[in-house]
Each structure stands twice: as C-alpha cells, then as structure tokens.
C-alpha cells in the first residue's frame, strides 16, 4: 500500500530543499582585516609621521554649507586658486546682502583663500541666464560644464527643501547626510564628504586625486581601488566613535595631512621620498615595506 502523502506544512519534517545563499564577502572588511594582520598600525603610523612635520590641525568650519558645496563644484578638475576666482565672481555678480563670512581654508587647500565677503544670492545664481553665469564663472575654467551643474544643484536643493540652506545636514547621521547629497545629480562621495567634513566635522574622509595617489603608493588602499571606492575603505579604516569626538576627527586630520603631503612632498611626478616621514612604511619605494 502506498503511504498517504503528508501535506506541506502539516507537521511534516521535510527538509527545505533550497540552499541558503551565502553572503558575498565584503572586500572592504577583508582588506582592513588583512592590513591589520600583515601591516599592523599602518594607519596610525602614517598619521603620526605626517603629523610630525605638518602638525595636527584642529577642525574649524571654513564656510557656510551652501557656499562650501558650490565652491567644491567649482574646484572640480581645476586648481583651487581658479575656483576662488570663480566664486569671487559669483559674489560680485549676485550680491546677497547677507552677513560677511571669513574663509578659513587651512592646510590642504591649494589656493590663497577667499577674501572675506557675503555668500552670493543663491536664488539669483539659480535663475541667472545660463550664458551670463557661464561668463561669470569662466575665470575658474569649465564654465559651460559647471554653470548648468550649479544651477541644477541649487534647483534640486530648493525644490526639496524650500530654500538653499543646508544647515539641516548637520543634524543627520553622516551616511544619511551623504546619501541625501549624492542623490543630487553630479554630486559624488568626494564633494558630499568635503561639505560634511568641513562644515559639520562629520567623520567622512574625502578622497581627491592627491589623497588617492599617496594612499595607493603607501599601500593604504588596494592597488585597484578607485577614488570612489577609497571612501568606503577609509570609512572602515578610520572608524568614528561619536562619543569620542577627538577620535571621530581622525578623518579631518587624515584628509588635511594626506592632501597636503600630496602637494608638498609626494608629488605626482617626482615624489621627494628622501624628505618623507613615512618612507619606512611606503610600498612605493619598498614593495615589502612593513
Ligand atoms: S615615501 Fe615617497 S612615495 Fe611614499 S609616501 Fe613618501 S613621498 Fe610618497
């Protein structure tokens, strides 16, 4: 006699036939664990070496967040000194009458610093005739690309929030704030991290071409990691403890000193390795460096 079939879910002890999906290994976590195992204290030693010649700057806000964002867009693919000219052009062409503010660029900034002045009238910038805005920011380079990007960014912010103010980002968790910014077309992790780090001291490390170059040479990030991916490697390597703000500020020190090192010593073409305080741990001059 054929036994009656037990209906599914009626107390039968049948084994599930589907295999459990294995979670994909996280390449960032794997890298960080390997670095700790094979090159212990690398991050701390590099930061200490850089601090020995550049010092440890304490964080201070350098501009209001909307100005910081637009200035950062103006720095894309151009020298900081040119971005300053374009930003001063915006101030002159679209005066706002708002309180004046000082620009505190600090170490790592490649320009001379903006003069003290009021932020531009962002509504006037957003609604300016495109050809006019291109002319205003032309001294910064890439005006035809940047003018529409700036207007689209300002429009997106105003449509989402009712005005152009970005102070609310300081109340958000760092990654939530970064996601809010990177949802805007044309804003990547670097630009978002610059704003959040320099305006709110949030523990996000912006990776520009200098930071990327120095990091690759020392071996802080994998050889194939892109600048975009490097943001996530640094998030894991510089874990922030929000209860310990001094520690959270490691991202600030790391960014400022690595970018300055890329400009001052670890040049793209001829790095001055003899003068470098981290040469003992750099894989560019010794592929087996500890
Ligand atoms: S040793 Fe040379 S390549 Fe390495 S970080 Fe220093 S300057 Fe750059």
What does this structure look like?
With 290 residues, the chain is mainly alpha-helical. The protein folds into two domains: 41-58 and 205-281, Helix-hairpin-Helix base-excision DNA repair enzymes (C-terminal) (Endonuclease Iii, domain 2, Orthogonal Bundle), CATH 1.10.1670; 65-200, Orthogonal Bundle (Endonuclease III, domain 1), CATH 1.10.340.30. It contains 13 helices and no strands. The chain has helices at residues 27-38, 42-54, 65-75, 80-93, 122-127, 130-137, 143-161, 174-182, 189-200, 209-218, 227-237, 245-248, 250-264. Helix 2 (42-54) crosses helix 13 (250-264), helix 3 packs antiparallel against helix 9 and helix 6 (130-137) packs across helix 7 (143-161). It starts with 26 loop residues before the first helix and ends in a 26-residue tail after the last helix. It binds iron/sulfur cluster.
Outline:
It is built from 13 helices and no strands. It is mainly α.
How helical, in percent, are the residues? Answer: 40-55%
Tell me, briefly, the overall form: globular
In the predicted model, the low-confidence regions spanning at least 5 consecutive residues are: 1-13
The amount of beta strand, in percent, is: under 5%
Q: Helix count?
A: 13
CATH superfamily of the largest domain: Hypothetical protein, domain 2
**What value does the Rg take, in angstroms?**
24 Å
Mean pLDDT: 90
| Count of β-strands | 0
Q: Please write the CATH class name of the largest domain.
A: Mainly Alpha
Domain count, please report it: 2
- CA-CA gap between termini: 73 Å
CATH architectural grouping of the largest domain: Orthogonal Bundle
- Structural class by SSE content: mainly alpha
CATH topology heading of the largest domain: Endonuclease III, domain 1
For the sheet with most strands, the description reads: none
Pattern of helices and strands? HHHHHHHHHHHHH
């Amino acid at each position: 006699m054929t036994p009656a079939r037990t209906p599914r879910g009626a107390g039968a002890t049948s084994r599930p036939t589907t295999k459990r999906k294995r979670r994909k290994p996280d390449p960032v976590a794997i890298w960080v664990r390997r670095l700790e195992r094979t090159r212990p204290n690398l991050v701390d030693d590099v930061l200490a070496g850089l601090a020995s010649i550049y010092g440890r700057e304490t964080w201070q806000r350098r501009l209001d967040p909307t100005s910081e964002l637009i200035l950062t867009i103006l720095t894309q693919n151009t020298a900081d000194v040119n971005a300053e000219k374009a930003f001063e052009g915006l101030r002159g062409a679209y005066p706002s009458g708002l309180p004046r503010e000082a620009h505190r660029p600090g170490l790592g900034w490649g320009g001379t610093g903006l003069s003290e002045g009021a932020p531009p009238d962002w509504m006037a910038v957003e609604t300016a005739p495109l050809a006019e805005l291109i002319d205003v920011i032309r001294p910064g380079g890439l005006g035809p690309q940047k003018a529409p990007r700036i207007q689209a960014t300002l429009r997106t912010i105003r449509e989402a929030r009712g005005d152009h103010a970005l102070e609310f980002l300081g109340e958000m968790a760092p990654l939530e704030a970064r996601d809010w910014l990177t949802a805007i077309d044309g804003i990547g992790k670097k630009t978002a991290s610059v704003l959040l780090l320099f305006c709110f001291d949030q523990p996000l490390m912006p990776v520009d071409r200098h930071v990327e170059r120095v990091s690759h040479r020392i071996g802080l990030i994998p050889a194939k990691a892109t600048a975009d991916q490097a943001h996530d490697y640094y998030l894991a390597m510089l874990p922030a403890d929000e209860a310990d703000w001094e520690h959270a500020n490691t991202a600030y020190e790391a960014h400022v000193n690595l970018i300055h090192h890329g400009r001052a010593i670890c040049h793209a073409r001829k790095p001055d390795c003899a003068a470098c305080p981290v040469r003992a741990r750099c894989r560019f001059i010794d592929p087996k460096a500890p």
